[in-house]
Amino acid sequence: MLLLLRRITRGGRRRRRRKSERFFLKRMKPKQLESELQDLKTFSTPKQNLEQYATTPLLATRVLHVAAVEFDDIEEKSVIDLGVGTGVLAIGAKLMGAGHVLGIDVDRDALEECKENLETYEPELEVELCLMDVVELIRRYDDDEDEEEEEDVEEEEEKSENVKRKDYVWPRADTVLTNPPFGTRRKGADVAFLAAAMKMAETAVYSFHKTSTREYIQKVAVKKLGAKSAKVVAEMKYGLKNQYGHHRKEEVEVFVDVWRIEPPPKAAKRDDNDDDSEMFEQNLRDLAANIEELQLSARQRKDKDKERNKNSNKNSNNRRRW
Questions:
Q1: Rounded to the nearest 5 degrees, what angle is found at the Cα of 49, between the Cα atoms of 48 and 52?
Q2: Of 36, 158, 190, 299, which has the fewest CB atoms closer than 10 Å, so is most exposed?
Q3: Residue 243 CB-density burial (10 A; 0-12 exposed, 13-18 middle, 19+ buried)
Q4: CA separation for the pair 266, 171 (Å, rounded)
Q5: What is the DSSP string of 5-37?
């Protein structure tokens, strides 16, 4: 299910609108960009199951300036913000002179808040927003062959799955920016984000990961995902505020690495023909149920699990009677 959110109804008080043209006259200085990003709305109701933590203006500014100034990966380049949230990185990239910008997220509420942030500019900043579950896409359609198939999978089913994987069409951009989940709530989500980013990027991926996982990320990027290069370009402190029930402190600082990863050479791009578009949209339609599930709050998910277990036990007891 491919949802491009170009028009979203807004609610609440309208905030002041800022002139967007003045930012494109010359490259913004770090302090100016950080100040601009401070005014953006963050998650109003962060979802714990998605590990939603707002990218701080300082963190966003650092990665964007490294990407723009040291590597020329932002200005007049196409950019994807993978896990766009409320749009800090996407908006920052646009203010730094990026060309086409695409923001991808699995959370509708976050995309609506991102849209509200875009509308605070006059004229509105042009960022395309897409509802997509890249974690599930990687799990279903990833064509990496380093993982062995289970022995009980029949040969015909394996061939069919390989065809599916080869047919999947990923969106592409010069640069992919991502602040992935840590992978504690949704196991493997951090690596799935990185794998998806590598498939989307033509030139470079910029990704945040805990410093404690540096050796692991290096191994995954180079050995599993076949990166041409993977290096830490900045070390930062990430302030995680108390926003979930299990948090005991007001704020915890986590040391994070900012990685710049160059993807492996890709096969020549396929033309954007009708067959590709149809396959892309069909694959995403298959994920609709999973996306709906992820919109639920922790309490709603818990209640739903209880209901499923109750029905499962009921069916099991009925079978025993027979």
A1: 50
A2: 299
A3: middle
A4: 13
A5: -S-----SPPPPPEESGGGGSSPPPHHHHHHHH
Name beta bridge partners: 231.
260
Whether 214 and 257 have beta carbons less than 8 Å apart is answered as yes
Long-range (24+ apart) CB contacts under 8 A made by 296-303 are: 296/49, 297/45, 297/47, 298/47, 298/48, 298/49, 301/49
Instruction: Please give the domain boundaries of the chain with CATH numbers for all domains.
Output: 3-321 (3.40.50.150)
* pTM exceeds 0.90, yes or no: no
Cβ proximity of 178 and 82 under 8 Å: yes
Quick: pLDDT tens for 34-85: 999 998 988 888 887 777 778 889 999 999 999 999 999 999 999 999 999 9
- DSSP bridge pairs for 261: 205, 230
Q: Is the pLDDT of residue 207 over 50?
A: yes
> What pLDDT shows up at residue 187?
75
Distance CA 128, CA 221 (A): 28
CA angle 192, 196, 201 (to 5 degrees): 145
- Would you say how long the chain is, in residues? 322
DSSP E strands: which ranges in the chain? 3-4, 18-19, 79-82, 101-105, 121-122, 128-131, 173-178, 201-210, 229-241, 251-262
State the Cα–Cα distance between residues 304 and 294, nearest whole angstrom.
Answer: 12
In angstroms, the Cα distances linking 301 to 33, 47, 166, 177 are 38, 11, 33, 29
